């Protein structure tokens, strides 16, 4: 198969200029070709199995794209990291939170992995990143013992910005534990949205 730069560019364009060896292989790039193109500065080798298009504009979320690509194709940003991406919290998490399938490795510096079941309807793309929906994000933070005041602020902000509704949040809470449902009901009382 002849290497297809346009297809590789489309892949990388949706990932802040980054791509994996596996993604490049699918569009015709052998390891040898990647190595040669790295030597000629067409691509930059970030680490084993991860490359970047040279001269691609930098993004404010590069660390998140890298964490997702390093974690595997079914990885999804979640919890406090997702709140931050949605700009529903002014607290920057100390770790990147990612939901991964059970079969993935769980050891990466500054990354907190969550092995949880997740449905397709709880996953979306936001700013090009695979991420839990607003509703799933808020309930995940609540369920994991996150700061209640931050969760309440996130709920109010999401409702005010039209990112979700009380009904959608309630439906997501009902998929969770009875304890989380009670916490959600307490938080939602008295909100006027």
Notes on the protein architecture:
This protein has 193 residues and is an alpha+beta fold. The protein folds into two domains: 49 residues, no CATH class; 127 residues, no CATH class. The chain starts with a helix and ends in a 5-residue tail after the last helix. The model has no long low-confidence stretch (mean pLDDT 91).
Summarize the structure.
The protein is an alpha+beta fold. The chain has helices at 5-13, 21-26, 31-39, 62-71, 79-85, 134-143, 148-160, 166-173, 178-188; strands spanning 18-20, 43-47, 50-53, 76-77, 96-99, 111-114, 123-126, 129-132. The protein folds into 2 domains: 5-53, no CATH class; 62-188, no CATH class.
Helix and strand arrangement:
Blueprint: H1 5-13, E1 18-20, H2 21-26, H3 31-39, E2 43-47, E3 50-53, H4 62-71, E4 76-77, H5 79-85, E5 96-99, E6 111-114, E7 123-126, E8 129-132, H6 134-143, H7 148-160, H8 166-173, H9 178-188
Parallel strand pairs: 5-6
Antiparallel strand pairs: 1-3, 2-3, 4-5, 7-8
Mean pLDDT: 91
Helix content: 40-55%
H and E order? HEHHEEHEHEEEEHHHH
What's the N-to-C terminus distance? 56 Å
- What is the approximate shape? elongated
Largest sheet composition: 3 strands, antiparallel
What is the β-strand count?
A: 8
How many H/I helical runs? 9
- How many domains? The number is 2
């Amino acid at each position: 198969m002849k290497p297809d730069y346009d297809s590789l560019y489309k892949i990388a364009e949706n990932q802040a200029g980054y791509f994996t060896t596996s993604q490049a292989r699918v569009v015709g790039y052998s390891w040898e070709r990647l190595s040669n193109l790295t030597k000629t500065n067409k691509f930059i080798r970030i680490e084993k199995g991860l490359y970047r298009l040279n001269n691609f504009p930098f993004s404010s979320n590069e660390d998140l794209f890298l964490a997702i690509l390093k974690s595997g194709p079914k990885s999804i940003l979640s919890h406090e990291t997702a709140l931050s991406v949605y700009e529903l919290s002014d607290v920057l998490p100390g770790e990147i939170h990612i939901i991964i399938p059970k079969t993935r490795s769980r050891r990466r510096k500054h990354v907190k992995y969550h092995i949880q079941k997740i449905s397709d309807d709880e996953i979306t793309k936001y700013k090009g990143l695979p991420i839990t929906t607003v509703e799933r994000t808020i309930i995940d933070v609540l369920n994991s013992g996150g700061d209640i005041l931050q969760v309440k602020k996130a709920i109010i902000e999401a409702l005010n910005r039209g990112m979700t509704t009380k009904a959608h949040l309630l439906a997501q809470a009902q998929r969770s534990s009875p304890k989380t449902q009670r916490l959600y009901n307490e938080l939602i009382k008295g909100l006027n949205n």
